Amino acid sequence: MPTVTSPEQLFEHELQDMYYAEKTLTKVLPKLASEASDAELSRAFTSHQKETEKHVRNLEEVFTKIGKRAEATPCPGIEGIKKEHDEFVSKEQPSSDVLDMFLTGAAARTEHYEIAAYTGMITMADALGETEASKLLGENLKQEQAALKKVTSISEKLAGKIPASA
Predict the structure, then answer these.
(1) HEC states along 104-152?
(2) What pTM, to 2 d.p., does this model score?
(3) Where do the H-state alpha helices sit in the chain?
(4) Is 50 exceeded by the pLDDT of residue 166?
């Protein structure tokens, strides 16, 4: 993409960033579901993968609505969270309980990132008069907010199982 000099170009750049992020997550979520030993956490990852596939389709539709080809631009935010996960798992070799707790934290970080990105894109879409795009992005935002609420609930449940330190 050329230098970003207009709100329309920024909006397209942000779409490309989230398109990359969501496509990456469709590949990562099955791995996280298999790593999780907590059944509820594993199911949450599997369920969110299906939602994430819909997010990808919604983003593709947004690209169509603004007359652009769907294209992904590497997303440093998601890559950083993914790298943090990979390094933690390989270096620490955590127990299943510790890994589950780490996974809920990584999932929450991801959801916060996505929520912030979608909130900003909706604001831009509204300002640009892209009401249909705003609606599709809003659908993704609502599901990301629900996913954060779910992972927070699971995290609180898992934290309740931690024995008090001596």
Answers:
(1) HHHHHHHHHHHHHHHHHHHHHHHHCCCHHHHHHHHHHHHHHHHHHHHHH
(2) 0.93
(3) 7-35, 39-65, 76-92, 96-127, 131-159
(4) no
